[in-house]
Model the fold of this input.
Amino acid sequence: MDLFSNIRPAVEALGDGAFLLPGFADSDAIIAEITRLTARSPFRHMTTPGGRKMQVAMSNCGRYGWISAPTGYRYDTTDPLTGAPWPAMPTAFVTLAKQAASAAGYSGFEPDVCLINRYGVGTRLSPHIDQDETEKSWPIVSVSVGIPATFQLFGPTRSGGARNITLHDGDVIILGGKARMYYHGIRPVAAATDPRIGALRYNLTFRRAR
Ligand code: MD3
Ligand code: FE
Done:
């Protein structure tokens, strides 16, 4: 313990390379950026390779965007909805992701993707592993905004059951190490209201795709 512990962010180790930074992010500024970014590349419900529409509405910013399509999952520099490149990643987003990664012990993180997820009440994200990135050794940095959600963190398989972690407005989690390849999902979002955005939750995931 030193005299400066009060100005260091709280870092809660969740085990296996996962960390929680409660309230680390300035969600007011993030909401303003999401509004601006999604005026250019709007939220849309992507179709899975199995032919189902995803409940989560998505967009991206950065050099690459994550896309689900009937032909499969991929990262692409072009937004298939607009035919244009994804909007550039705001410098404030890059700084936030780098600082969060550093606080969790992952220095040198340079994200080239920011996937922007939008959840309404009842929206869920089924357990999955994020494995479409060429470079899988970098962590993923996740930022939650708006109404809370229950995040489920399984292990390398779904059979061992999950830890339930409530993610609140401004919370950041960093998934590195072994946890980077763990199954995870979001439980159906419970009814709640955020004074700025209403009954919505946004999540940013900063990734290194290539
Ligand atoms: C654990 N998003 O976009 S973020 C996703 O809240 C995704 O929108 C959720 O899962 C959301 O792929 C959860 C937290 C997260 C992100 C990546 C992970 C947890 C992770 C990668 C490995 C393990
Ligand atoms: Fe994921």
Observations:
- The chain is about 15% helix and 30% strand.
- The radius of gyration is 16 Å.
- The first strand starts at residue 12 and ends at 15.
